[in-house]
């Protein structure tokens, strides 16, 4: 499937499970809503598995110049570009505080998708694997 098709079908609710190497597992819900023809807004919330600690994060997914761009909310800087993917390359690497972050969209279809983020450097050495599956509820307000 082409990324443009994935982009068009991204809005809705997605259950996810995220495994962070040598740390913990998170489970939660990603709610993606269409803002306009090039932008989806998303809110992720969940819990650390087997704990009561919760987490949340805001994202934006944009479709520009045949690229799927993923932005994350940062309290200091607003939305910052995290990953930029195309049909030619579903891997994106960037540096943050001397650590290298490599994001890979491993697989995707209309009902499931998964990603792996590999972080290497002087401060962090970890792998974050996330698997998403479409929730049958259409959407919730946030």
Task: Give me a quick take on this structure.
With 142 residues, this protein is mainly beta.
Shape: globular
Number of domains: 1
CATH architecture classification: Beta Barrel
Order of helices and strands: HEEEEEEEEEE
Look up the CATH topology: Lipocalin
Mean pLDDT: 91
Radius of gyration (Å): 15 Å
Would you give an account of this structure?
This protein has one helix and ten strands; from the N terminus they run αββββββββββ. It is mainly beta and 142 residues long. It has one helix spanning 3-8; strands at 12-20, 24-36, 39-48, 54-64, 67-74, 78-85, 91-96, 99-108, 112-120, 125-134. It has a single domain (3-134), classed as Lipocalin, CATH 2.40.128.120. The mean pLDDT is 91. The chain starts with a helix and ends in an 8-residue tail after the last strand. The protein has a ten-stranded antiparallel β-sheet with strand order 6-5-4-3-2-1-10-9-8-7.
Task: Summarize the helices and strands and which ones pair or pack.
Blueprint: H1 3-8, E1 12-20, E2 24-36, E3 39-48, E4 54-64, E5 67-74, E6 78-85, E7 91-96, E8 99-108, E9 112-120, E10 125-134
Antiparallel strand pairs: 1-2, 1-10, 2-3, 3-4, 4-5, 5-6, 7-8, 8-9, 9-10
List keywords for this structure.
single chain, 142 residues, mainly beta, Lipocalin, ten-stranded antiparallel beta sheet, 1 helix, 10 strands, globular
């Amino acid at each position: 499937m082409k990324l443009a098709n994935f982009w068009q079908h991204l809005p809705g609710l997605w259950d996810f499970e995220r495994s962070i190497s040598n740390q913990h597992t998170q489970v939660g819900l990603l709610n993606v809503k269409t803002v306009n023809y090039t932008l989806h807004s998303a809110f992720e919330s969940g819990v650390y598995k087997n704990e009561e600690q919760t987490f949340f994060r805001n994202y934006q997914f944009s479709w520009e110049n045949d690229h799927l761009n993923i932005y994350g909310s940062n309290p200091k800087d607003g939305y910052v570009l995290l990953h930029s993917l195309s049909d030619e390359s579903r891997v994106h690497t960037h540096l943050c505080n001397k650590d290298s972050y490599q994001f890979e969209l491993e697989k995707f279809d209309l009902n499931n998708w998964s990603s792996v983020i590999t972080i290497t450097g002087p401060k962090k050495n970890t792998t974050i694997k996330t698997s998403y599956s479409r929730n049958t509820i259409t959407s919730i307000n946030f």
